[in-house]
Amino acid sequence: xxxxxxxxxxxxxxxxxxxxxxxxxxxxxxxxxxxxxxxxxxxxxxxxxxxxxxxxxxxxxxxxxxxxxxxxxxxxxxxxxxxxxxxxxxxxxxxxxxxxxxxxxxxxxxxxxxxxxxxxxxxxxxxxxxxxxxxxxxxxxxxxxxxxxxxxxxxxxxxxxxxxxxxxxxxxxxxxxxxxxxxxxxxxxxxxxxxxxxxxxxxxxxxxxxxxxxxxxxxxxxxxxxxxxxxxxxxxxxxxxxxxxxxxxxxxxxxxxxxxxxxxxxxxxxxxxxxxxxxxxxxxxxxxxxxxxxxxxxxxxxxxxxxxxxxxxxxxxxxxxxxxxxxxxxxxxxxxxxx
Amino acid sequence: xxxxxxxxxxxxxxxxxxxxxxxxxxxxxxxxxxxxxxxxxxxxxxxxxxxxxxxxxxxxxxxxxxxxxxxxxxxxxxxxxxxxxxxxxxxxxxxxxxxxxxxxxxxxxxxxxxxxxxxxxxxxxxxxxxxxxxxxxxxxxxxxxxxxxxxxxxxxxxxxxxxxxxxxxxxxxxxxxxxxxxxxxxxxxxxxxxxxxxxxxxxxxxxxxxxxxxxxxxxxxxxxxxxxxxxxxxxxxxxxxxxxxxxxxxxxxxxxxxxxxxxxxxxxxxxxxxxxxxxxxxxxxxxxxxxxxxxxxxxxxxxxxxxxxxxxxxxxxxxxxxxxxxxxxxxxxxxxxxxxxxxxxxxx
Lengths: 339, 348
Hints:
- The complex is a heterodimer of chains A (339) and B (348).
- Chain A is α+β, with helices and mostly antiparallel strands and 339 residues long.
- Chain A has two domains: 2-62 and 166-334, Aminopeptidase (3-Layer(aba) Sandwich), CATH 3.40.630.10; 64-151, CATH 2.40.30.40.
- Helix content of chain A is 27%, strand content 26%.
- Chain A has helices at residues 2-8, 17-29, 115-119, 136-140, 168-182, 202-209, 232-235, 256-268, 285-288, 316-334, and strands at 33-36, 42-45, 53-59, 64-70, 76-81, 92-96, 101-105, 129-130, 148-151, 156-158, 162-165, 188-194, 215-224, 244-246, 274-276, 297-305, 312-315.
- In chain A, strands 1, 2, 3, 10, 11, 12, 13, 14, 15, 16 and 17 form an eleven-stranded mixed β-sheet that branches.
- In chain A, a hairpin with a 5-residue loop joins strand 4 (64-70) and strand 5.
- In chain A, helix 1 packs across helix 5 (168-182).
- The mean pLDDT of chain A is 95.
- Chain B is an alpha+beta fold and 348 residues long.
- Chain B is 27% helix and 26% strand.
- Chain B contains ten helices and 17 strands.
- Chain B has helices spanning 3-11, 24-31, 116-119, 140-143, 172-189, 210-219, 259-271, 289-293, 320-336, 342-346; strands at residues 37-40, 46-50, 58-64, 69-75, 81-86, 98-102, 106-111, 133-135, 152-155, 160-161, 166-169, 196-202, 223-231, 250-253, 277-280, 300-308, 316-319.
- In chain B, the strands form three sheets. An eight-stranded mixed β-sheet of chain B has the order 1-2-12-3-13-16-14-15, sandwiched between helices.
- At the A-B interface, strand 7 of A face strand 7, helix 3 and strand 10 of B.
């Protein structure tokens, strides 16, 4: 399954090669032209010529960790790549580098702690990785500073139409762009798979500088905080209530008339949808909208619980709804009149 | 049969304190070829007897079967499960774990965690156990037939090999001890020993060494050893509170170790070139040997500790060679009584 394959690939920000190679191969097999720019963004065209040209984009990178150094005892110290709460790291198995060296992030035994200690979270500087080696020299045979560290989290369907995986933010978006490119929709589409979104929308700046489109759709797996006791205004989205459409976030305000056209399509076809009800977080729209002379953007996302952790969760029905809504909206665009 | 496969099966099966039943058949399957009898006492302890040539004494070797775990205490209106701990859990090891909820069927779940986008970077405090939720992907209504308050929850973790014969997984505390007892009985299979040996796999150790209380009473041994795990050396711990991985089991010295048992273990290790370390425990040991020692008319006890890092997390890590070494020391210790009368041994 394509989404499973995408999620299980290693793609910490700055190290997107495995994801890029996978997408490139898949789209070339489907007969599409691909190019890679200097930053590593993958650009694909669907081969259609039309008056209107749209861009659809998703970032390939995910948050993760990087090796900082090795202690004399052979234990490995690390830092985060992208926004990561260190509290998600404790008591996990990870893999390091191209050779997938397994290691564990352990914790001080509870027996040796004072009760006060348990109330404070471990900081990233207190944590380390143990790969079973006994000295610095031995660890150096397998691991070097700068190696990327990946979470292990198999794609797992569960519950009522739920899926657990790592990196649903944003392989969900990558999946959507791939599918929409392959559908042979009657409109000129450029697909842009960006790098380094999690480090501050880095790849998209360069991609935006090289793109001329009439509209750009930014596709994502987005924050969902619908946990019991989280204030409704902080929940942002709810699982199972359909794709989330953005009005505003930290990096963009979306053109309201376009947002209304998108929601009208959803309503007309009775596809459940929801607003992304929070202005925290930003995405590549912040670059695409404001580059060159400016390009209108829309942001559509599948709600995902626990993003930026190894165990994000989505509802397949939101995901399917997002795909259907985008397909219908793009078909409408191709008929003219929307833009 | 292969001891490592036995250990893998053990740690990938759940057996939280008071709920060790799933492990019984695995233990029976592996121990049966070497045992004269296998019985289960009323509390659930598994007692494997290997009879000696002369039955000139009784030695009890104990390792606990149970592991720490979680229990469902509430199903809320959104279908999230709230939990409480069984045994000593550090709440900090729980966020973002994948779990199995042992309901009317086994359900996959995750212990969720709000993303930094919502928590706003407030990461200094640990999340309290009472604020952590298990997400099993169902609504409250859908869960009615599936989950009840009181159902057990365990963390999902397969055994993995690291460098240098190291292995990592959950519940190595104290399935590692169980595996070393298995090594011990296999070593004794080709030997003729005089004393009766009771390999006792105890229940409910993690909630207060309870299985050892009843099983010791039932066996009524002359000499008893608890084989448990000891704190492996890591940077945040005081060196003198720890054992080094791969250097053999810790032989415990202190009030919980009968001086003759301590001496005999040390001498047996030396004589047979078996690696060992000394572990100091001035007071309570928190092992099965603690209640064992004061059962009935008293038992001459000792403790062997297999070095283990990150105890009570789901990434407990040990060196396989320490399990083998412990098994060798156990079988040689049994053989020691071929040349030593039990009565003499027990004299101060």
